[in-house]
Amino acid sequence: MMDRRFVLKALALSMGGLLLPGSMVHAAMSRPRITDVRFASTPNRTRIIFSLNQEIKHSLATLRDPDRVVLDLQNTELSSDLNLLSFTDPIVRKVRTDSLGNGTMRAVFELQDEASSRAFLLKDKEGERPRLVIEFTATETRDTADADTAAQPVKSEKPLMARKGRRDIVIVLDPGHGGIDPGAIGSGGVKEKDVALSVAKQVAREINATPGFKAYLTRNEDRFVGLSRRCAIARNHKADLFISLHADAFHIPSARGASVYCLSERGRRNAVPANNKSFMLGNTLLSAIANTPSLSLHFKTTKQARFAVLKTQEIPSVLVEMAFLSNHQEEMLLRKSSHQASLAKAVTVGAKNFAQKTGLA
Ligand SMILES: [Zn+2]
């Protein structure tokens, strides 16, 4: 939740800057204008929210081939700089705007796939400016959307439960590092990026061999992938869960065993996990590791941290440090295919158990 707010704020700020050059603010006092743009999304629903200085007349039309939604705003000025907006969203692919010349501003939302859309005005309450909300709901899970959620925050949704019996459970595996970024390197030369990729590929194979499950990798070769790109891949695949695989390094060479981290709200020791399902996923993976005789744990509970790669909004996300490359014994184990197979098995079992526990499977 924290992360989405942050992204929205950042986006709103950047767009506010684009939309409202100083001269325009003063010149257009009497005309309706958009003072802020926000963007919120869950796997099933995306909202683009225009904050207004006064109520605005709008119309919405849906066009097919390609799927797109056209919004006309009467007597509204808007810089065409909105075209520069780029974001990654499972439903809306692109937004572009045009001025139709008669004062009407047209925004065209290009969709990834068929989606239902509606626009509604949230009227000015005490001290609050009116907002125009354009809402897109994925057609695939349309019947799960509450009819009266107009005034509710997007976070009230339960996208995970909505998919039961409808589609494969999607697990995105994220092998850490890659390419120019080797991650930790053991004294024997074993690189974190190689171990992570090898184990992730095995987990993907096992998951893809299970009916009802589908695995994707954020990289399937030795190449560099940025952290935000990794999150975007998870969102694009509408991941039900996200598991990042790493190997630890520590200055005390005796440190050993696996650890699991989930994202915390503030990175503090007692902070509430940003996504409780992440915490649950972490604990399920820990039990699977603990139940594998050849594996050992470093921390016995899910730890919390602020890894950028875990910022995948509503997707339960964890980061697994499979062992310590700084421990020579563990480095030698990490290199062995039998040990990699045990790790892959534990992660697969943990992921499937989580899916069962949370009603996904
Ligand atoms: Zn790492």
Structural description of this entry:
The protein has 361 residues and is of the alpha/beta class. The protein is built from seven helices and 14 strands. The protein has helices spanning 2-19, 22-27, 192-208, 227-236, 276-290, 328-335, 337-357; strands at residues 34-41, 45-52, 58-63, 68-73, 92-99, 105-111, 115-122, 131-138, 169-175, 213-217, 241-248, 259-263, 303-305, 317-324. The strands form three sheets. A six-stranded mixed beta sheet has the order 10-9-11-14-12-13, with helices on both faces. Strands 1-2-8-7 form a four-stranded antiparallel beta sheet. Strands 3-4-6-5 form a four-stranded antiparallel beta sheet, with no helix packed on it. It is elongated. 40% of the residues are buried. The protein binds zinc ion.
Number of domains: 2
Q: In the CATH hierarchy, what is the class of the largest domain?
A: Alpha Beta
Q: Kindly identify the CATH topology of the largest domain.
A: Aminopeptidase
Structural class: alpha/beta
Q: How confident overall, as mean pLDDT? A: 76
What percent of residues adopt helix (DSSP H or I)? 25-40%
Name given to the CATH homologous superfamily of the largest domain: Zn-dependent exopeptidases
Sequence of secondary-structure elements:
HHEEEEEEEEEHEHEEHEEHH
- How far is the first residue's CA from the last residue's CA? 25 Å
> Cofactors and ligands present?
zinc ion
Write the layout of secondary structure elements.
Blueprint: H1 2-19, H2 22-27, E1 34-41, E2 45-52, E3 58-63, E4 68-73, E5 92-99, E6 105-111, E7 115-122, E8 131-138, E9 169-175, H3 192-208, E10 213-217, H4 227-236, E11 241-248, E12 259-263, H5 276-290, E13 303-305, E14 317-324, H6 328-335, H7 337-357
Parallel strand pairs: 9-10, 9-11, 11-14, 12-13
Antiparallel strand pairs: 1-2, 2-8, 3-4, 4-6, 5-6, 7-8, 12-14
Helix pairs in contact: 3-7, 5-7
